[in-house]
Design brief:
The complex is a heterotrimer of chains A (about 375), B (about 550) and C (about 325). Chain A has about 375 residues and is α+β, with helices and mostly antiparallel strands. Chain A has helices spanning about 1-10, 15-20, 25-35, 35-55, 55-60, 160-195, 200-215, 215-225, 235-245, 250-265, 265-275, 280-315, 325-330, 335-340, 350-370, and strands at about 80-85, 85-100, 110-120, 125-130, 135-140, 140-145. Chain A has a 4-stranded antiparallel beta sheet, with no helix packed on it. In chain A, strands 4-5 form a two-stranded antiparallel sheet. In chain A, strand 1 (about 80-85) and strand 2 form a beta hairpin. In chain A, helix 7 packs antiparallel against helix 10 (about 250-265) and helix 12 (about 280-315) packs antiparallel against helix 15 (about 350-370). The longest helix of chain A has about 35 residues, at about 160-195. Chain A is elongated and about 90 Å long. Chain A starts with a helix and ends in a 7-residue tail after the last helix. With about 550 residues, chain B is an alpha/beta fold. Chain B folds into 3 domains: about 5-95 and about 180-265, 3-Layer(aba) Sandwich (Rossmann fold), CATH 3.40.50.300; about 105-175, no CATH class; about 270-385 and about 500-545, 3-Layer(aba) Sandwich (Rossmann fold). In chain B, about 35% of the residues lie in helices and about 25% in strands. Chain B is built from 21 helices and 21 strands. In chain B, the strands form 4 sheets. Chain B has a 6-stranded mixed beta sheet with strand order 7-8-9-3-10-11, with helices on both faces. In chain B, strand 1 and strand 2 form a beta hairpin. In chain B, helix 3 crosses helix 4 and helix 7 (about 195-210) crosses helix 21. The longest helix of chain B has 18 residues, at about 195-210. Chain B is globular and about 80 Å long. With about 325 residues, chain C is an all-alpha fold. Chain C has 14 helices and no strands. Classes of the chains: A alpha+beta (about 375), B alpha/beta (about 550), C mainly alpha (about 325). The interface between A and B is large, with 35 and 36 residues.
Amino acid sequence: MALLSVLRGKRKEISKEDYYTASQMQLIWSRFKAKRSAMIAASILGFIVVCGIFSSFLSPYAPDASGRNADYVNGAPQIPQFCDANGCSLTPFIHKVERFRSVKTNFRWVTRETEERNYVTFFPKGWDYNFLGIKFERHLFGVEEGYVHLFGTDGGGKDIFSRTLHAIGVSLAVGTLGVLISFVLALIIGSTAGFFGGFVDTVLQALMDTVKTVPTIPLFMALAAFIPQEWSAEMRFFFISMLLGTLGWGTLARRIRTHVLAERTAEYVTAARLCGASSAHVIRKHLLPSFTSYIIVDLVISFPYMVLSETALSFIGLGLKDPVNSLGVMLQNVTKVDVLLNYQWYFIPVPIFIAIVLAFVFVGDGLRDAADPYSERK
Amino acid sequence: MTSLLSVRDLSVKFSTLEGDITAVDNISFDVAPGEVLGLVGESGSGKSVTGRSLMQLNPHYAHYGENSSMILKTDEEEVDILSLRKAKELRKVRGDLVSMIFQEPIASFAPAITIGKQMAEQLMLHRKMSFKEARELSVDMLDRVGIIDPSRRFDQYAFEFSGGMRQRAMIAMALSTKPKLLIADEPTTALDVTIQAQVLELMQELIHDFGMGMIFVTHDLAVISQIADRVAVMQNGKIVEQGTVDDIILHPQHNYTQRLLDAVPKLDDFINQEDGAKDTVPATSKELADKAETLISVRNLSVQFEISKSFLGKKNLLTAVNDVSIDIPKGSFFGLVGESGSGKSTTGRTILGAYNMAQGEIIYKDDDAHYEIAALDRHDLKNFRKRAQLIFQDPYAALSPRMTVRDIIAEPLEVMGITKNRKETDERVREIAAKCKLNLEHLRRFPHAFSGGQRQRIAIARALVCGPKFVVADEAVAALDVSIQAEILELLKSLQKELGLTFLFISHDLAVVANLCDHVAVMEKGKIVESAPTLDLFRNPQKDYTKSLLAAAPTLRTHHA
Amino acid sequence: MSAFLKFFTTRLGAAISTMLLVSFVVFSLMELVPGNCAERYLAYKDTQGVSVTDEDIRAEEVRMGLDKPYVVRWATWISDITFRGYWGESCLWRVDVLQLVGDKMAISMGLSLAALILTYAISVPIGILSASLRDSWFDSSLRIFSYLGLALPNFLLALVVMLFSTIYFGETLTGLFSDEFRDAPWSMAKFTDMMSRAWLPIFILAWSATAIQMQTVRALVSDEKDKLYVTAARARGISGSYLLWHYPARHSLGPVINSIGYDLNRIFNDLPIVAAVLVLTDAGALLLDALAKSNDQQLAGAIILMMTAGIVGLNFITDILLAIVDPRIRKGFF
């Protein structure tokens, strides 16, 4: 009854009959909606995912060497502004930079800002990219002349803003692939153990325990190190995803096993069996619907661990490598004292990474609380 | 005489996210020294909350009404319980002047602390005893409640005690500080009847010896009629009626009390009835039983479960059912009674083919079919399932929360391929739902829309939709409140007549079985102790175990004490 | 006592079989990687200017026993480790693995155990406190803190610490030894020097585990607090911190102790990366070194096996501890 009043307490008046005829997914959704932190996290997550998917459109320059700005190496972020000493304009602009050398700079080339304005333009033509197999060349924004670097540039003159957007896409892709692979393994192994029980269960549980006991990152490292240097970036990408997936199923499998076991012995399943229901019927009508919600929760919760592992691996140079961008790849060089002291904008991807993980955690939490709408009654 | 406890205008509200829920609504009652007040009500009536309020044990989001007062008065002092705020002040009522016993004896002891330590720490706290003194007193108390070898038991843990022993130890612990008032919250509900009788007797004796007052919270009117001096009946947080036990039991004034009393199955009435006095009189004569054909015949059935396996693969077997033979006449209610762990459920489910039997045979014989359960092939098994179904105890666990009522009831039809199309299925579902007195508008709802009684109707409809001849009802009314229990029993009776069903009715409750069944078999430790037509069995039990069960069964008093 | 003995032997048996299974998995994985030890060694020689023929490789394989069947080699490997304490020979450097990693492994284990102790020293009392102050500001700020523990993994924390220490103190706080001690033999002075620098890696290693463990402890104690026996104890007048520590906290110890092994696992996972960030010359960094540059499967297998043995060993110890703490296990009730 408590749940009923939760639903009714919401601004939108929900009739009793609606509640009584609400399916599991409708109940879950209404409970999830009621949780503000989870909803905010979900919209942030949605935004980040969209950024990842449309990264090429959103980034003004190619994230690899072809998009480098040789005149603005290790350049500071350029924030578009509306006003400067010479007054204001309706279109945002940045100041042009110039390179010069003089006695003052010991005859080294130095970049400095000029007074000259460089206006931001929207939907300019830029570098070619592929989206869903179609070639595009329009981008969200650019500047009239030369380059704009919202997050600055790195040691190669590559635009950190563009790289970050692509890195989000790649990290999410690795995570998705890894989670999917480990999910398939976990589903097969976990549900086999839970469904058949007995000797099969004992053996599979021992296997799960073993997989959980071995520290994964050192093992990843041991295996990733053997990737031949001549492999292409794509092959590395798939290999790393597979590695993350094949070593990360232990915990998930155990949880699926527990779900299946609890559900298999539920009385309504016994009732179905006593009607002569086949295993296929029991799995399709009872087991699967009962734990899809839990599985979704588990997947969302295990996602950040995948992203984290990939970042860690790439960070130490054993995961993805240039020219593929991922958060870990972007952080590879930041431990240098030079960077720490002078080019702190290298760290801009860090808060974005944190935001992704936090968004997943909050969405996962919200889903977990909502996933079992029947628990509070009785 | 002044009262020991006087409660005035007690209201308890729980503030939750969705607003306040009133659990107890303006109730007043008194308990005199040495008096037993029975607080009776069905689930959700607020009786347990009332009990806990007396020690302020409700969760922190509980609020007491502004006008509420609970005054505890002894020879020495007067305590306004609600004015106590700090834990130190509350100690006055918690464990000192008032003690409490809970429903689940296993859950109310800390699992990893010895019983003795839990007893002693309370005495050290309230009576400022040394551990040695506390130990001596505790061992005496354990001895007093009938625990054998108390000084050894003192150092044991709750899991090393049996259920009845645990509740005895709980009583010893509650009484060791010699409180003035004892609150017993369903103290015997989780126990088997024979143990329940012993514990009740012990409590009565001790209350008398210690001269303390007691509030006995329970749903069970029969128990109340045996133990209480005065009774307060609660419904939806209110006391609808209170008075002496005789007044309430014999001359109830309030409608609700009357309804409750009517709903209680009465064992005495049944045994003392004139032959043929009621139209529902079950067949008593031998001839009648002999005349009926046997539908299910069980011969020398044994069922074993593997409880553990040792290193070398040596199996540890538990024999749950041991050499059981019964004949279930066609068209009868066959009762199978026993205490927990007697093997009655296993027997019932084995007859349906849910477990493998180690030995024996089970024959189903109908006009047009003959099955031997152990040797069914796929095709026959399917046909047998159409004829034999099960109704579960827990109406919450037995229905998938993810299916609509229509889908739940239709599942057997679809699985067995009985109906050819959706239209036909819907017809069958509506037909049986109407028979089970379900509102047809509700078929598109999910189980979460229903209360326990309605859920049990749905479960019955599912069991009957495929048109079975034989139904095993496994404690089908045990989880329900007494008024709902009566409704469901009525429903089962009418369905049996209408559809010509044969029931194997498994229950621990002798009174229910007596009023429903034609024939009863008593089980103990996997064996059938005695089997006879109901009236014969209840009037002239042959075996000691049956006698002790009958003697222990709490019965509602129908005459002045 | 016999129940306890039975429990002890069952657990020991389980630990040993897990270890065997782990060793087999690790061994198989190391077999699966392209190239064997002999090829690797000779390829390495090749780069040093020694020319190598196919016959040399065959001869080397025979010398190393690589021609024997797979299972036999696994059995030899594992029995050598168990009975002779011989962990095999590095593929590249032809030195006993133990000699190569001994010191560094000891330092790694030391750091990890220190981090583990720090984790529990912080998370257990604070988690319990947080559970007892459920729904207070203290409780909710801890919640945020533990979310951060997940979102800001150890190596990122290390980076951030480095960033700020460079900006504000002009020092990166990296390394485990001062320059003068780096290659010096072990001495008291070297040890003190290490300790004066070790606090940062220990703190960083403990970070995530602490944040997550704190939340776990809170949840466990919180669950326990709602149980009937706690209400029953309150009904007997027991209250305050005595109630908290003797009832809910005492009874949630089991699962907390049980998770120690997994926290060590977590710390081992973080170790190599934190070590890389903070430039520590411990086994983690060595593993990184050995694997990233020269693919030494013998060394890698040995190191992973050592780490896993540490975890399995700790799990075994906590199981036994748990049995001593929990009378239900001790008396063979389960």
